[in-house]
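pasting for ref
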Amino acid sequence: MDLRVFGSEGLLILDCDRARLEVQRHDGDHFIMDIEPGAGEYTCEGPPANFVDLILGRTNVNHAPGWAGMRAIELLDAAYRSAASGRREAV
């Protein structure tokens, strides 16, 4: 994940892949945080494990609610319609 937030006073950079956090200010007062290599690593084991636990009845806590899946499908549907029509499509 590489997140960049542009604001009136400068730029915030958060890069989990390179374990980097920086603030670059227009006034030159920059900030770089020392982060241990691998500190931002995410292996994505939690969501699939939670899904399996739900299926097997080991838990009833769903960390991926249905509304999130529905919104993802709505976005994909609009993307496919847009590709076919060549226009913006409502989500």
